[in-house]
Amino acid sequence: xxxxGSVPSRRGLLFGGAAIAAGTLAAGCTSNEEKEPAAxxxxxxxxxNDKPGKHVTIGxxxxxxxxxxxxxxxxxxxxxxxxxxxxTFKPVxxxxxxxxxxxxxxxxxxxxxxxxxxxxxxxxxxNQVARKAMDAGIPVVNLDRVFPDKLSYRTWIGGDNYGMxxxxxxxxxxxxxxxxxxxxxxxxxxxxATLPLTQERSKGFADALKSYGFSVTARQDAKFTVExxxxxxxxxxxxxxxxxxxxxxxxxxxxxxxxxxxxAGRKEFFMVGAAGSANAMREIKSGGVLEATVxxxxxxAGSAVRVARLIAQGxxxxxxxxxxxxxxxxxxxxxxxxxxxxRYLPLGFES
Length: 351
Fold this sequence. Notes:
13 strands, ABC transporter substrate-binding protein, SBP_2_dom, six-stranded mixed beta sheet, alpha/beta, 12 helices, TAT_signal, 351 residues, Peripla_BP_I, signal, Rossmann fold
């Protein structure tokens, strides 16, 4: 794409964008090559951004896949990149070592990739190397764990942790009202209690429950692991002879939670999960204690690759009037139940 004429330059697109948030990504997007791009954006019927354009190289770095959700992040990014003949996907070795990830990102900067999709192990500790990429003219699509400095990324895309809690809380609240339970026993199995994302999920859950006149009876963290999920659930089941609803904040650790419930033979309550794993959806479909899960889908990595391609090619989103990809994209937390599980199952990840 040319940097001359009425179309904004790549650097202008990179650093001059308006910061607007969008809940969902358009599947089809329209090029900004027209003489009247705003009018074209409003009238486009699906656009043609999926057609081959300028060839671009997209660098990719993420943490090691020691968790089902994290493994799905890399798989989704790779699968999306393969859809485009005009994209060369350049991943580096996944790692949980901060210094190794910094070095890997520096290698992508040296390789002069056209865009970089980066899910940092820690946003604060990788902030400077992301800023280094931006200063070198490489747009960074910050995935999931946000950098504290907005100058360190062109666009952030991720899930809504507070919204996950709200969605779970509304499901639990409505179901308890339907059952006519006035003073329910509600237990919550958290992820890692000290993480802001865990705290945001808990706050959203509590806020939604409050609108029904309910509150959490007991809460314990399970470290996002199957083993700890099993132990924590067993402890909660032993401590509460009656439970009306259980919210588990992570479907990966939910494998252990469900095992503890089945081992205890408890069936008097219903459970809601979180993240949207395939095994959780299969449990929902089977009609057991797990009735629903709220999404925090790793498909966001595929969307991040699509966004990086658009930015590198100087394109925008077809359903928006603006010329540029938004600065922030927060994905909706959707509630998966037995009624709609077949639609969501293809997007589920394996725990």
